[in-house]
Amino acid sequence: MPLLRFAPSPNGYLHLGHAYSALFTHKMALRENGRWLLRIEDIDPTRCRKEFVTAIFEDLHWLGLEWPHDVLFQSSRFDAYAHALEQLKQQGLIYPCFCTRTQIRNVASSRTDPDGAPLYPGTCTSLSEKEIAQKRACKLPVQWRLDMRKACEKTGPLSFTEMPPLPGARPQVRFANPTRWGDVVLQRKDTPTSYHLAVVVDDAFQNITHVTRGRDLEAATDIHMLLQMLLGLPTPTYTFHRLITDAGNLKLSKSRGSPSLKDLRKAGVSPSDIRTRLGFD
After folding, report:
1. CA–CA–CA angle 172, 176, 180 (5° rounding)
2. Collapsing DSSP states into helix, strand and coil, what is residue 149?
3. Start-end of H helices in the chain
4. Are 47 and 5 in contact (CB under 8 A)?
5. pLDDT by residue (tens digit) across 191-212?
6. Which residues contact 15 (CB under 8 A, 6 or more apart)?
7. How far apart are CA 201 and CA 206, in angstroms?
8. In 10 A of CB 158, how many CB atoms?
9. How many CA atoms lie within 13 A of 102 on its CB side?
């Protein structure tokens, strides 16, 4: 049976962009005669809060959505992510990095990754075992990066299947280009994993067959496809949906204070209004 998931992060209140993604995922599940799950991606202990988890449940129920009760919380899965990281370490594909963001900005070239961040220049790839031990002894914060060159050499060319969002559209084969991301972080300094590693491990754990995501995460699929191959995990079919933007044509964002579903509900907006506005009436 096709299995999809909606996976918000409880680091703020949901807005119309999240509502569109949830409704789209639910509609895709119905279209594929499958079902959808709810996952809470709460790997960031400094930003994720219980009241936001409660609000996610309230907002989705308000929209008329239901899901199986066995909600997966990523904060309970750190051991699984550590195991996956160890697999990559045993393959010689990751290395410790002690660089700060300021140091990277100061030495990086003008090249950026798809998210606009400076490409990591590989400063720590040449550290000797002695230098690494000295830095660890000094208690310097460490993160673990994927050696993109070695990883791509190991897998060779990669491709995945994209299912266009329009009903009746034919699947398309897409070729991945993970090198444009450089040596991505797989274990952050402030939490024992990263979004990229956690989402790949959990999609496999939950037997997700179809992943729906906004166009802003389309490029990240390259990294996920690469990790799936390196870890021997299945690759889902991907569908990329449009983004909901504001009057200035900017993507709605928690950090920019986009109106939340909670605020809209208090203002008298109904679930039917939301569905009509987003094209799900």
Report:
1. 145
2. helix
3. 16-31, 50-62, 78-90, 101-107, 129-137, 148-155, 195-205, 221-231, 261-266, 271-278
4. no
5. 999 999 999 999 999 999 999 9
6. 244, 252, 253, 254, 258, 259, 260, 261
7. 9
8. 17
9. 0
Q: Model pTM?
A: 0.95
What DSSP letter does each residue of 80-139 carry, written as one string? HHHHHHHHHHHTT-EEEE---HHHHHHH--S-B-TTSPBPP--GGGG--HHHHHHHHHTT
What is the tens place of the pLDDT at every residue in 221-239?
A: 999 999 999 999 999 999 9
CA nearest to 220, candidates 247, 194, 202, 246: 194
The closest alpha carbon to 223, from 191, 181, 188, 193, belongs to: 181
Write out the two tokens for 160: 């995945």
Q: How many CB atoms lie within 10 A of CB 119?
A: 17
Euclidean distance between CA atoms 22 and 36, whole angstroms: 10
Question: Is the predicted pLDDT of residue 269 greater than 90, yes or no?
Answer: yes
d(CA 85, CA 166): 37
Tokens of 186: 């797989």
Q: Give me Rg for the CA atoms of the chain.
A: 20
What is the distance between the alpha carbons of residues 240 and 218, in angstroms, rounded to a whole number? 7
